[in-house]
């Protein structure tokens, strides 16, 4: 009876693989992706046997096609899960039931290429005031979704003071990808906040196992081929990192299946020893950003807050009325003065 059940399961899997290999087979639905998670061990074993048999029969092209079709299942499930995770955001102080749809409340932030302030010598407020006095002609604005538009850019370091909107920008970047609005050439996107990586600092595991831990929907993927698929890894909140990030002394690691500490995995990712073709986005407060060696960063950007045009629109919509309307109106010209308007646009909101 056991033998019969095993043979039946294998036959059913082979039928499923045959459908996947058919050129007329439609794109998978989310329901099919959920079904894919059932009987995980059996299906994983059947897949390995089938791929091995196809290669031994010199049907490498069919084996690759089958592998790619199955990889697309994981891509679909990852997108679906990230969309659910990123579509809502807590407003104000986090409380149960106080979330709102990100797309309904998100306001585009003003992001510039390069860095305008000193990292260590000034308080963050002073950095804002210094940056606000820089002539606009020296700034090159860039949209969040265009960070990796230039093919030569592999790693981006985004700086910004606390509360300026870095994490929300990351969340919107991911949400736009999951909803098909931007960066559709990206196949996999893996957000790995330093706050969560800190909890793994005592563990030794491979990069693939680390990804499987945070993204169980891809646990059947043994390897990620960054030469075939565009992959983005996002490390938000470098200033919260509790790992030593010892770029000088950590051993070199190039194998995504080899186990090491999370610190070693991260330094080798950033140094391009692991997944050298993957794209990396790191966000940080200014004071912590110098932990990353300059040679490991292709592009530095800065979140500056609201653009002046948007701030003017917001101020013009402000209801200057009520019992303090006279005093409120008297402050309006004061706020519009460039000396005060520039810093106001850049302070965290």
Notes on the structure:
- It is a single chain.
- The protein has about 350 residues and is α/β, with parallel strands linked by helices.
- It has 13 helices and ten strands.
- The chain has helices at about 1-20, 30-35, 40-55, 60-85, 100-105, 125-130, 165-180, 195, 205-215, 260-270, 310-315, 325-335, 340-345; strands at about 90, 100, 110-115, 155-160, 185-190, 205, 230-235, 260, 280-285, 300-305.
- The strands form three sheets. The protein has a six-stranded mixed β-sheet. It has a two-stranded antiparallel sheet with strand order 1-2. A two-stranded antiparallel ribbon has the order 6-8.
- The longest helix has 27 residues, at about 60-85.
- The radius of gyration is 24 Å and the shape is globular.
- InterPro entries: NACHT-assoc, NACHT_NTPase, NLR, P-loop_NTPase.
- It comes from Hemibagrus guttatus.
- This is NACHT domain-containing protein.
- Pfam families: FISNA, NACHT.
Can you lay out the helices and strands and say which pair or pack?
Layout: H1 2-21, H2 30-36, H3 40-56, H4 60-86, E1 88-90, E2 99-101, H5 102-105, E3 110-113, H6 124-132, E4 155-159, H7 166-178, E5 186-191, H8 194-197, E6 204-205, H9 207-214, E7 230-235, E8 260-261, H10 262-270, E9 279-284, E10 299-305, H11 308-316, H12 325-336, H13 338-346
Parallel strand pairs: 4-9, 4-10, 5-7, 7-9
Antiparallel strand pairs: 1-2, 3-10, 6-8
Helix pairs in contact: 1-3, 2-4, 3-4, 4-7, 6-13
InterPro entries: NACHT-assoc, NACHT_NTPase, NLR, P-loop_NTPase
Keywords: Leucine-rich repeat, Repeat
Domain NACHT: 154-288
């Amino acid at each position: 009876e056991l033998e019969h059940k095993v043979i039946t399961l294998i036959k059913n899997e082979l039928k499923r693989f045959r459908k996947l290999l058919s050129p007329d087979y439609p794109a998978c639905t989310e329901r099919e992706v959920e079904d894919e998670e059932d009987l995980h061990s059996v299906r994983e074993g059947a897949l390995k046997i089938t791929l091995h048999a196809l290669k031994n029969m010199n049907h490498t092209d069919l084996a690759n096609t089958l592998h790619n079709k199955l990889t697309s299942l994981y891509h679909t499930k990852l997108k679906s899960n990230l969309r659910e995770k990123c579509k809502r955001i807590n407003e104000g102080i986090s409380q149960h039931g106080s979330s709102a749809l990100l797309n309904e409340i998100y306001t585009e932030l003003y992001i510039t290429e390069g860095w305008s302030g000193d990292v260590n010598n000034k308080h963050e407020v002073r950095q804002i005031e210094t940056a606000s006095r820089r002539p606009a002609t020296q700034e090159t604005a860039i949209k969040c979704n265009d960070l990796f538009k230039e093919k030569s850019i592999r790693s981006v370091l985004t700086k910004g003071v606390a509360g300026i909107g870095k994490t929300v920008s990351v969340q919107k970047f991911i949400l736009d990808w999951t909803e098909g609005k931007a960066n559709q050439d990206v196949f996999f996107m893996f957000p790995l906040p330093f706050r969560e990586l800190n909890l793994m600092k005592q563990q030794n595991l491979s990069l693939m196992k680390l990804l499987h831990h945070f993204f169980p929907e891809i646990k059947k993927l043994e390897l990620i081929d960054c030469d075939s698929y565009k992959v983005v890894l996002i490390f938000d909140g470098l200033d919260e990192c509790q790992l030593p990030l010892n770029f000088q002394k950590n051993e070199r690691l190039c194998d995504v299946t080899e186990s090491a500490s999370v610190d070693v995995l991260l330094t080798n990712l950033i140094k391009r020893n692991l997944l050298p073709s993957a794209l990396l986005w790191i966000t940080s407060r200014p004071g912590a950003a110098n932990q990353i060696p300059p040679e490991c960063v292709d592009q530095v950007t800065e979140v500056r807050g609201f653009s002046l045009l948007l701030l003017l629109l917001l101020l013009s919509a402000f209801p200057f009325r009520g019992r303090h309307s006279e005093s409120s109106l008297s402050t309006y010209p004061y706020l519009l003065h460039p000396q005060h308007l520039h810093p106001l646009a850049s302070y965290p909101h």
